[in-house]
Amino acid sequence: MKAIIINGGYSVNSRLTGVQLEIEKLLNENDVSYEKIIVHQLPAQDLITANFTSHIIIENIKRVEKADIIILLTPVFKGAYSGILKTFLDLLPQKALENKSVIPVAIGGSIAHLLSLEYALKPVVSILGATHITNPVYIVDKQVTKDDDVFIVENEVIKRLETVLKQAFVLDAIRA
Question: What digits encode the pLDDT tens for the residues 126-160?
C-alpha cells in the first residue's frame, strides 16, 4: 500500500503543514509508505500554463498514478479549496484517481466552509475517476496551533484523521 500527500497550501509554515506532519506520523505508525507533493513548490509557469510536457509535472503525475491512497490537503478561502491545488488537479489525466482511496482534508477559518469540500472538491475528484472518497476532514484554524516552531494539532482532529485513514486502508485491502 502506498499513499501520496498532495499539499495544496501556500506556505510550508502554515497550519496545513502541521496537519500534514500528523498525517505523516499516522502513516508511519501504520507502516504505509508515502510520498508528498508540495504543489506550490512545483514550477508555477508549468502549473499556470498547464504544461503537460514538463518533466517535473510528468514525474509528479506518475507518482499520483502509482499511489493507492491520495490525501488532498487544502486551505479553504472564500468558500473554496485552493487554486494551487486546482492547478495541479487540472493536470491529472481523466481517470487518474480511479481505483484509489481519496481523503480530502481542509483547514479554514470557520466551520461555515465545511461544505466547500462537498460542493467544490468532491465533483472534481469524481471527474478524475475517484469512487472511493472518504468522509472529508475539515479542521478549523484554532484546532492547529504553533508553539516555538512546533505544530500542535488537537487530539479530536488526530482521531478524525486516524478514522479516515483506517477507512482508506480497509478500502485498499478490499480492492487488492
Answer: 999 998 999 999 999 899 998 888 999 999 999 99
Q: Residue 173: its pLDDT value, please?
A: 66
For the chain, the domains span 2-175
C-alpha span between 44 and 160 (Å, rounded): 33
| 130, 93 contact by CB (below 8 A) | no
Angle between helices 155-175 and 15-29 (to 10 degrees): 50
80: nearest Cα among 56, 32, 115: 115
115's grid cell: 461544505
pTM: 0.94
Confirm or reject CATH 3.40.50.360 for domain 2-175, answering yes or no: yes
Q: Which residue has the higher pLDDT, 74 or 117?
A: 74
